[in-house]
Known about the structure:
This protein is mainly alpha-helical. 67% of the residues lie in helices and 4% in strands. The chain contains 20 helices and five strands.
Amino acid sequence: MEYGHFMTTSSSLPSLTIENQRIPINILPIYRKSFNPKLCSISKFENFVKTFSKTHQETYISITDDISSNGFAAEKNLDKFSLISTLGECSKNRNLGHGKQCHGLVLKLGFDQDKFVATTLVSLYSKCGDLESACKLFDKSSDWDIVSWNSFISGYSSNGMYNEALNYCMQVFSLDIQPNHYTFSIGLSICASVGAVEEGRQLHAYIVKMEYFAYPAVGNSLLTMYSKFGMMDEVEILFKKLPEKNLISWTAIITGFYQQKCFLKALRQFCDMIKSGEDPNEHTFVVVMASCGGMLVPMYGRMIHAQAIKFGMASGVFVGTAILDMYSETKQMDDARKQFEEMGVLASHVSWNALVAA
């Protein structure tokens, strides 16, 4: 629901009307103090935007209307850094409408040729899913840095246009541009999504050549990609070479073995993970429980169940239901009923269906 220049998802805020603009009462004093055209400067607008967006994640303000109506642009108080800051807030909140208004100010003030402002605009349109506008901006220049390319590629990927994203990603390596670790991470993720084995291997070769394997995000992305390709021999080799193994690394290889029905290997990796001191998360437990169910060996399932209790996750919806499934698959119905009872009010319809299906 909109209140003048403010937007909130809550309908319970009391409001009143001032000059045909409805403003929530609890922020009215802030509005009056900060937005008096005779007293405030553009920096006050910026600070208000940043502070307000931090304390109200779903509540934000369009300063572009106020800037235009109060004449700040005419007073030349609005510089490119103010615009970049405002566009960043619009991008973060996926507020395309206000972003376009700010784009209008960019054109009006002649900042559209500034490299940093242009990059922020590409990021805004990409993140908001307006890929046509992002593409038009991108085609206007060939002098884009890797940050712009990453934003552009990520925009296509996040909107499910993986083939287009992959094409742009591979273009980077034919240009005189230095990719960074994010370029490789997003590229590997796209390859995994579309099953692009050849392109994935090409990216892997670039990673080795440019010495990016040491970056945790890149190494983990390689593990995940090869796991989705079912190339577990490659995954094991890479896993041993990782200079730093974290939760994502361990979960990636465990998930890969489970997906390839190598249940015992998945269980062994889990045990090695615990020995290394790395704590599992809910997803790790769900995958390992499914592996135990696939092996049809109740003893292994009980062992992992004990670990889930130790980490305080056994009664949660996701892990608890996975435990229930495991006992059902191994025909341990007394244990399955006991698990369902221990979940109490957290037992979902999925948990109930798992018990009934057994």
